Structures
1.
Amino acid sequence: MTEKPHTILIIEDDTAQREALLTRLQREGFAVDTARNGSHALTLLETYTPDLILLDLNMPVLSGKGFLEQVQARRTHLPPIIVLTNDERLSEVSEVLEHAVTDYLVKADTSMERLVALVRERLTASVSCVSSG
Amino acid sequence: MLMDELRSSGKELGDHAEQLELFALAVRYAADHIIITDPAGCILYANAAAERLTGYSLDEMRGATPGLWGRQMGKEFYERFWQSVRDRKEQFIGELRNRRKSGEVYDAEVRVAPVLDRATGEVRCYVGIERDITAQKNLERTKNEFLSLVSHNLKTPLGTVAWYAEMLLDGTVGTLTHEQSAYVREVQTANARMLQLVRQLLSVSRIELAVTASGGEAVDLGEVVATVLRERAAELARRQLTLDTYYEHPLAPVRGEQVLLREAVENLVANAITYTDPGGTLTVRVFHKSANEEVYGHHFLEDRVVVVVGDTGCGIPRAEQERLFEQFFRASTARERDANGIGIGLHLVQRIVRKLHGDIWFRSDVGTGTEFYLAFPHLRATEA
C-alpha cells in the first residue's frame, strides 16, 4: 500500500517562481496545489486543508499579510506556514511574525535544496504533533 | 601728554564699542540659527535666523528653553546632550528633529558649546547653533528608498535564475551533459556574484531604515565575534590562515543591534581573509578598556568595549588610507587581489559603527598587514 502524499499549497504571484516550486516539490513526491494570490488561496482552502503552505508576501489582489489576517480569522487550526519573500524590511518581518507563521525565508538567500529540507522537517514535526496530540 | 593719553584711550573705547556693535550685528544676522542660554537652558538671546527657523519671536523665546521647539527626540538623546555639555563641559554635535511654531517638523544639525567662566571653570552660558538640514535629509531618505526598491526588484529575478539553475543541475528536469553542467555552473556563479552586490547595496539602505528607532538592545560583542569566526572556520582552514583569538570574560554588554554589529564584524573578518595570503595570521581580540586608558592611539572619557581585527595581509597604501571608508572606494592593493568588490564593505562598517555611537579606526602598512579597531560605549548598568 502506498502512503498518501503530503499536500502543499503554494501561494505565489510570480509565474516563474510558482512553476519552479511546483516542479521541484512534485518531483519530491508531494501533491502540490498553487494559488496566484491570497484571495485565490482562501477560495481553495474552503474545499480542503493542505499539510503545509508556502506563502509569498508581495502579491496583487490579496497580499500575504492580508491572507494571514483573513485565514486566521476564519480557521482555528492551521498547517505550518512558511513565508517565502524577498522583503527583508525589519518592520515587515516583525509584523508577519506576529501571525501563526512557522518560518520566514528570504527567497534569494534560500536554495531549493534548503527549502525542500525545511518543508520535510516541518511536515514531520506537524505530523508527530498531531499523532501525539 | 595727558591729553594724548586720554585721546588714545578714548579712541580705544570707541574702537571697542564699534567692535562690539559689529559682533552683535554679525550674530544677529548670521545665516545660522544662534541662541544663547543660561546654565539651566533658559534662553537669553536668539538671533534673526533662530526666529525664522523656529517661527518664534525673540520675545517668545526669551526665558523659555529650546524645548519650545524641541522635545521631538527620545529621552536618551537629551541625556547624552546634557552629559556632554554640562557634565563633561564638551561641545555637543548632533542631528535632531524639531517642531516649528507652525507645527511643521524639521531636521536640524545642532552644535552646542558651553562657555566657561574663566575664574571658576563653571558653565556661564551655552551657545547653540542650529542649521536646517531637512532638504538634505529628505534627499538621503529618497535615495535610500530608491536603493531599497531597486535592490528588492533586482533580487526577485536573480532569485529565480538561481532556482532554475539549481534545478537544472540537480536533475529535476533530466540529466545534463558534463559540458552543459559546466555552463550552468558559470551562470550560477555570475548570478551569485550579482546577488551579493545587490545584498550589499541593500544593506546600506537597511542600516538607515533600521535607524535605532528601537533604541537598541544589549549585545555581547564577544558572542557576535565568536559566531562570525565559527562560521568562517572552514574558509580559514581552506586558505591556510591561522586564527589567533582573545576574548575577555566577563564582557560588559554594548547598546546596539545584534544584526548590524554582526554585519560590521563579518565585513572586517571577510576582508582580512580575502586580503591575506595562505600562511598568514588573523588576530581577533575583544576586551575592555577603562576610561582614559590609551586604545591604540585613542583616548575615551568613558569605558569602552574594543574589538580588534588584524591580519598579516597586503595592507593599504598610506596615500589611500584617508579615503578608505568612502563609498565605492577601493584601495589599489585590494583591486589587485580581487577585481569583483565594489567598495562598499568598509563604508557599511563605518555607518553601522557611527549609528551605534562607536568609533572605528585602523593602522596599516603595505606588506605587513592591517589592524581595524572598533570601540563601543558600555551599556550602562541602569539601562541594562
Note: Chain A touches chain B through 19 residues (CB under 8 Å).
2.
Amino acid sequence: MSLRETVAVQAVTWTGISEPNDAAGAMAHMLAFSIEGFAALRGELAFEDEPSSFEAALQETKEPTS
Amino acid sequence: MNKPVQGSLLHLSLTEAAAAVKDGSITSVALTTAALEAFNRVDKVINSSIWLEGAVALEAAEALDKKRESGAKLGPLHGIPLAHKDMYYKAGKLSTCGSSIRKDFRPAYTATVIERLEEAGSVTLGGLNMAEFAQNPTGHNQHYGHCRNPWHPDYCAGGSSSGSGAAVAARLVYGALGSDTGGSIRLPASICGVTGIKPTQTRVSRHGVMPLSFSTDNVGPLTQTARDAARFMAVIAGHDPKDPTSSHEPVADYEAALTGDLSGMIIGVPTNYFFDGIDADVQAAFDQVVLVLKERGAVIIPVTIPHIDAIATYGGILSRVEGGTIHGEWMRRRPQDYAVHLSGRLYPSQGIPAVYYVEGLARRGPILKAVGKEVFGLCHAFITPTLRVTVPTLLSTDIDAGTPGAIELFQDMSINTRPINYLGLPSVSVPCGLDPNGLPIGFQVQGRPFAEARILAIADAYQRDTDWHRRLPPNVS
C-alpha cells in the first residue's frame, strides 16, 4: 500500500475525512520526509521528557539578569 | 540613515508620524485621509486589504485630534492609522480570516491586542488580506484575490500576513499586525522589504485572535523600521488575564535599548542547516550584513545549532497537527469551501501518529535548553537569511493552478523560519538587499526567550547604517 493510500485509510477510519483533491494526495505522499526524519531521531526521546516543560524552558533559557 | 524620506506623509516612519501628531504639526485626520487615499490609489494593484471602514476611521481620527487639542495625555500611537491582518477580532466587525467559511463572521468580543492598540491612540482602518486561515507562505488567496508584491505584482507578497507586508511596504499604513506560526510575519516582511518581529512564544496575548496552532502561534507587528516595531511591541506585549498562556515576564523598555552600539555584542552565524542550498544573491546580501554589524562593533562567531534535524522535523508537524485538529469539523463537512492548497495541506495531518506529535512536544523544552546552552552560551544572538531563495512569482507557487514544482517550493519557503517557532525564540526580519529581479531580501535575528530588546537593538543598529528599510517600491509616491 502506498503512503498516499495509507493516509487515506487512516484519515477515513479515524476522523471521517476523505482526500479532498489530488494536491492533498501529493502532500500526503510528502509525509515520507517526516517519517524519515522521525526514524532518524529514534532513541533520542528520554524516558523523563514530558510535554509540560516548555514554558519552564523558556524561563530557564532567558538572558541572565546582571 | 534614519532621517525621514521626503514626500508623502505616509513616507514617515510610525515613530516619526507619532511625534508629528504629538507636537501638533500633523493631524490624525490628515494621516488617516492620506492612508485611505493611498489604499484607493494603490490597492487596485496589490490587493492588500479585504475591507476598510473609511468613515469610521476618520471619525476616530477627528476624536483623537480633539483629544490632543484638549491637552489630554496621549498614548504612544496617538493618531496613527493602522490596519491589521483580518483575523484580529473586534466586536461586531467583520473578521474573514481570509476564508470563504468565515466570510460573514462577526465576533462578539475584541482581541486584547486590538484593545491595547486603540487605547494607545491608533486608528484602525480595516482588515488586511491574508492567506486563507493564515496557512500559506505566499499570499495566494482564492476568495479575496491574491495579494501582490508592491515591488512587482507578478511576485508573491509572502504569507501568511501578506496584506500586512504589502500595505506597509507600499506605505499605505505605518504598521500592521501579522501573525507568525511558521514564518508568517517574517516571510512577508522579508519579501516585501519591511521589518517584522515574531515575539517570544507567550510574550503577546492571543485572546481574540484566530487560532492555527496552540503551540506555535504568535502575534507581532510589521513596520517600516526596528524602532517602529519597538514602539508597537511595547504597546501589545505583556500578560493578559484573558489569555492564560501569556507570560508574566516583565516587558522591557524596547525603545530605550536602541542605542546603535553593538560593542561587546557577540553574534553567531550558524554553520549548519540555515545556508544549505542558499541562492547566491541571498548569500551575497547576507555577507554584507555581517560586514555592517562588524563595523558597528559586533563580534561575529560561527555557531552550530544542536539537534537541528530534530528541530526541523518536529517543527514541521506541530502546527500541521494542531491546524488539522482545529479544522477537522470543516474538513469533514465542507472541504470544498477551502482553496485546493489549503485542504491539501490540512488533510495529511490526519495521517501523522499522535505519538509523533507528543514526541515533538515532549522534546521541545529539552531541545530549547540545549540551544540555550550550546548557542546562547557563546553568543547573544544569531543571524540567518529569512529565506534561502529569492522571491518567487505567484505563478511558480500556485498549487491550485497545478504549477509543477509548486508544492515543493511552497514548503521550502519557510525552511529557515519554522524552526524558530519550534524553539519559541524571538526573531526579527530586517530588509538587507534587492535581488536581480528588484525584489527584497531579508535576514533574521534570533535571541534568547524574552530578548526582544536585544534583537531589536541589533536590527536598529543595522538600519542606522543602511537604507534598505527606507527604499520605496517602484510607483509608490
Note: Chain B touches chain A through 55 residues (CB under 8 Å).
